[in-house]
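Next comes a single protein record:
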Amino acid sequence: MRLLKLVRFSSFTSRFVIPVVVCVVAVSVAIAALVLWASREADSVAMERQSRLVRLVVSQLRTTIAHNQESVTVWDDAVLAVQEDRGEEWLDYNVGSWMYDYFGHNGAYVLGPDDKLIFGFATDAGAGEGESSFAAISGQVAPLVERLRQTMRAGDTDDLEDRMLSPGEADLTVVRGHPAVVSVKPFVSDTGNLEQTPGEEFLHVAVRYLDGEFVRELERDYLFEGMRFAWSDNSREGEASLPLLAGSGNIIGYFIWQPYRPGLAMLSKLVPVLLGALGLVLVALSILLTVLHRRSKKLHQSEARMKYLAHHDPLTGLPNRALFNERLDRSFLSRRSREMIAVLYLDLDRFKQVNDTLGHPAGDLLIMEIGNRLRELLRSVDTVARIGGDEFIITLPRLREVKEVEAICERIIEAVRKPFVIHEQQVFASVSIGVALAPQHSSERTELTRKADIALYHAKNHGRNGYAIFCTDMDTIVQERRRIEHDLRKALTRSNEIQVHYQPLYNASDMRITGAEALVRWKHPTKGWIAPNGFIPVAEEAGLIETLGQRVLREVCAAASAWPDQMVAVNISALELRNPSFVRRVLDTLDSYGIEPGRLEVEVTESALSGNADQCEKNVNALREEGIRVVLDDFGTGFSSFSRLQKLEVDRIKIDRCFVSGIGRVAGDEAIVQAIVDLAHAKGLKTTAEGVETEEQGDYLKRIGCDDLQGFLYSRPVTLKQFDGLLGVERPANSSEVSAA
């Protein structure tokens, strides 16, 4: 009986249990095979996507480097600089080390029309080794140069990309033991007004290494793990590699990294579950589906992150140029007949100075804060993108009137003008804006953004911290700037055009005239009076500022020699302050007219004190040692900060008129002015408030202890004869007009 039961159980086992076990094993094996296949497929797809991303980034790097070059090669001043051989310092500052500081380029070279090197810079070469560093890459550069010159001679621009302004050639090669992108671009006129022989242009060669910092950027920005560069494919087990191909098809090296393997990660966690749940197929399947879903979701998130980075700026999270272009194109397609689209090109004024004074990390934080403020100002249908170091671009669709654009520009300028707190320091900034409108100026994206860029140029050249809307007269204005330079050169050789006016300075306590600020004016023979902001920037760019400054100083000293004891303030350009012979020239001029050094104040901006810091600091210290007082002009504008003030060796602070004008208004600037005065007095400095125009402003400034006042409320700038009258000075007839010779 027991045997019969055993046989029946054995039969049951044979007929049911064994088949079930076999079925379970088979199903488990099938599931295991399916999991293994799915994991390998997931790994394969992930690796292929990462490889495509690396290829895309390297490909886009060529275009990015070429676009970076155009910021200095498509520029009239650069064309004139290389043609006139303004010297290695100019080239290094504008097209050499500046390209490394701003864009991370490892090498920059300038070639003449005969392809001879006239300037060289390399991050891994010492000073004066430009020629030897270029010799190491001349063989790779020569074919690119020859192809570019053929293109320029043929005038072939049909293959230019949308964002490119001039032809160029680029390739992958090996430079000084580094894999690198080498890009060649011509120096060409941005206005088209300079004559250049096609094929004989000066050329700019840029080099960007693809190892070192570039590899770290790939790893950081695109979430690659263990990214490295190798000359041969020495990838270890589990690593992925991608060859770098030159234009000739030759492999110059490999990018190798530890790829993200979602399938392998999934499998390592799932195998113990399968082994421990051989009889629980449904549970195992449920776990499998859950894990697959999670891994798929993570892979989707990783892919979404990569797609996000391809269309957004990593620092600010704002759209990049590619996404901006897409949205602007969509705006054109959806624009209604009576609607306008505005493109705003934004550039921070003198942003380089914040990096020089506070460091690049502070500059990055400032860019992020400005991006946040721009986002808060705009509508949901608007787009703000970051397209360069300190450049932003905005599209405003669905507009009805131009005044809507003007209102937005004013809000942006006001928002940027408010102080930023960076590393517990107050930093001040300003922005210039260029505006172009569709369909008035163009209904094509590239042309519209180009015209917005032209408008930005004019905004920056008309005082900065403002905006300009494109108009067809802007090309005429560029030509007018050239004529002003020509006429200014002639005016400096004549005795009656360049004149000095004097605006009195009043002691706040007794309203006694303590001195005057000397203000240069130009009486053009046909245009009449030209304000300083109409010719001083031209004088600086044309190299005339030192001649102009010396002429003004001589005239001021001759005028002050007849005053009892009043001081006189003279504005000094940053270019003058950087000249090692500046102090000696000032002292010689004072001595020739018998003026005590203590009666002279030189007004300089913080940016002048920040640039070429060693020489500027030497000159400032030398002036103060001789008794000449140094005044920090326009304090509170640009990137001035209270903490910076404690590091600057000056005798007086001049409070900018933009803060004085805010006194008495709703949400005025009284607190800022009070803080400046208190801090100056705590440091033992005098203060002068400029731009005082109302009794309310004057009374407030007196009440808070400001030392000296200046403005239209008391006196406009006057001629020497009129200022002598204010002092009661009678000057001999033969000395009333001061010679400018």
Notes: The longest helix spans residues 2-73. Residues 2-10 have pLDDT under 50 and may be disordered. The chain has five domains: 2-57+261-311, 74-154+162-210, 219-258, 321-472, 479-727.
